[in-house]
């Protein structure tokens, strides 16, 4: 076990007392936290265990998320404070929107959506790049009680189509393109293809035309966003906030890499606001009026929670960055943004820092910038390896804090609560369970395990506010996926252990999800694509360690008998197939043709052992293996592709 390294500046902490209080009397704890939100009607019941699959928070409460994120700050004197700083090195654009500006834009777009018949409970899909209109779109939906579902712009048409069919949106908001370093990604052809594939058709599509690419509009269905906005502004049409129940959905966010019917994580209005507002001072130690930056994408849960909702609910200035950690223009990009905008706290994925470290190991670019306002760096999205954490700490001279959470939870399950008083850091651990999360390590029989013993990580029900109450229109699947295996607990599908101090260590997924640069992707979904190739008889996908992305997928394929194509040609076709079907987000670049896959006598493919070979990790021969020589063949095939260690 690694010993704790006492953080400089880590002093007395209120964490233990606050955490104990949150578990002992969750109703009193979250009832008090709810006082920070403006309600039309306060909740009649803080938690009702008889509603939904495991209970519902703030029952009887009536509220509006947009009002809390925008209107109330304007009414309370923040009209001229920047709400959003848009910084886009890929388009050489910078734009600041005050809370007053934001209110005007959101009220206007909300009125336009209403003109298209969008009302309370209707769904709106956003397929948008990192532009202010994405945030305006989300808030405009929240304003009129519509449910937004943001789909990351890197997903291919088929993936988008499954989400359209599940959410059944009345309207889709999109842009003509997204911009990557060195290339423009046209969104409209992808969206058009997705709508063609989908059996559910939206009645309208609003298109934000960007100068880099003009999208072709389909008459009758597609509308120019800027024209609609100008017309609405000229006539002074606005929409005011609609009152919704605390338990009404705010948004649906589909988990990455799902196959078949996608899993739409539902987020409600009341619990989401209460928990996210609570995290800003207590976990991140940020005050209203300060500048906060989550370098993520609005398509992911981090973007929803910490680019959009939490900073705005708290009255902060949020940075919206359309660029990369390196190459836009160099490995000093993050330092420039922090220095230029006086950012006090940054939150990003370890992948970003691995990329910066690889490009600029001595942090030469840092010498050009003044980062004295920066107080802390938070990392999440995949495991923060101790090397990267310590490198970042050394060059920045501020605490670097790993924390762990999921799309399903909306905020940290485990972290180091800076606002309550920082705890000592143990590299490799995201520290301790956050208030409201009763985290346990259990074996397959749901018996709690002792310290330092690896098992499944579960959370005792009820989950705290903001965590998913269910999946979109799939209560049964929610119970089956998350609550069934360990009765009385939420299954995180992560494996790990707690040490004797209660510090949590996340060791990996217990299912087939791999983590590519913070994006959770299903190996099962990739295997479906590989299996669809006409020459493939059998396949297996594993995640292998990658210094930059955390993990990258590697596909093994067994060809059908009689195939006379060159294996290298088939490997290239398979890589292209995954890119076309799942999208570049999968980072799928390694396909390896093999004669057979190693299996147990009962026919189970030994993916875990294959992964250990590829990762250079020690492994032992599985007792149930059918033919041990099959693993030697995998080792040789990996080495033939420059991977693996024997």
Automatic annotation (TrEMBL):
One Pfam family of this chain: AMP-binding
Entry's family note: Belongs to the ATP-dependent AMP-binding enzyme family.
UniProt superkingdom: Bacteria
Residue span(s) of domain Acetyl-coenzyme A synthetase N-terminal: 15-69
Domain AMP-dependent synthetase/ligase: 76-460
Span of domain AMP-binding enzyme C-terminal: 526-604
PANTHER family: ACYL-COA SYNTHETASE, ACYL-COA SYNTHETASE SHORT-CHAIN FAMILY MEMBER 3, MITOCHONDRIAL
Lineage: Bacteria, Pseudomonadati, Pseudomonadota, Alphaproteobacteria, Hyphomicrobiales
Species whose genome carries this gene: Rhodoplanes azumiensis
Protein name: Propionyl-CoA synthetase
InterPro entries: ACAS_N, AMP-bd_C, AMP-bd_C_sf, AMP-binding_CS, AMP-dep_synth/lig_dom, ANL_N_sf
